[in-house]
Amino acid sequence: MRFVFIMVAVVLTACTGFSQGNKYPSMEEECKLSGSQDSTQCQIVAMEDLTQAEKEYNIGALYLFPSAGQTEDCDKAKYWFESAAKQDNEKAINGLGLLYYTGCGVDVDYKKAAEYYQLADAKGSLEAKVNLGELYRGGGPGVPQDYDKALDWYEQGIEDEPARAYNGLSLMNFMQGNSDQGVEYLEKSAELGNGVAQYNLAVMYDEGNFGIHKNDKEKAKYWYEKSAANGYADAQYNLDILLEEMKQRAD
Fold it and tell me: Which of 62, 77, 87, 247 is most exposed, with the fewest beta carbons within 10 Å of its own?
């Protein structure tokens, strides 16, 4: 069982020069190629309450974060994000930042990621502030680690994405050795439903470390269950082990 420092963010080349080309199918063709009118692609195309840019962003997100039966395709994600970004869609611009942050279909470039995140933030993205906090907390190609900038962006991000912002503040404090403050922020994030924070808090109670100096199996069980319910597989694995341990103690 381990405490995980997970940098959660997802988001797009310099702020000009979106790629052109017609080697990719149209949205309608994406629907046809999916092989079923019930496919996610077809459902997106049929959504009358979405703008063209919103549909394009959703198609791109589908390829970046594939659901069951889908396959990740970073090139298609980039194509659709760029198309939507040309229409000032803030989610797509943020998505382009994520591509450069993760190296999906492009070389990892934190400087370009930061440019996209900042542009997305100016356009009203709810994710960009915390993404910038993540970027500066760890640093990487083109952007040095900067805790002051990370702190500023995380604090700004509390209004938009409090669960992620508090989780980032928690990890930053642990990295700086401020375990008490780290636990306080982690608890806030966990209470707001962040699955990673719930898992990390469970591990602390399970093992009695990282600022929680007395293990508490009942609290560990509670937070593993919360994290597992959020789909975090490691939490379910650790929960099964913990339940077996608790059963053996009771026998």
Answer: 247
**Count of positions (residues) in the chain:** 251
pLDDT digits (tens, 9 = 90+) for 137-147: 999 999 999 99
Examine the pLDDT at 90 and tell me if it is beyond 70. Answer: yes
Q: What is the pTM of this model?
A: 0.85
C-beta neighbour count of 28 within 10 angstroms: 11
Instruction: Select from 229, 214, 208 the least CA-distant residue to 1.
Output: 208
Nearest-angstrom CA–CA distance, 155 and 213: 28
- pLDDT above 70 covers what percent of the chain? 90
Query: What SS3 class is residue 142?
Result: coil
User: Closest by alpha carbon to 82, among 67, 68, 63?
Assistant: 63
Cβ of 66: how many Cβ atoms within 10 Å? 14
Hey, where are the domains in the chain? 8-144, 161-251
CA distance linking residue 30 with residue 98, whole number of Å: 23
- Apex 164 CA angle, 163 and 170, nearest 5: 95
CATH 1.25.40.10 holds for 161-251: yes
The fourth-level CATH superfamily of domain 8-144 is Tetratricopeptide repeat domain (1.25.40.10)
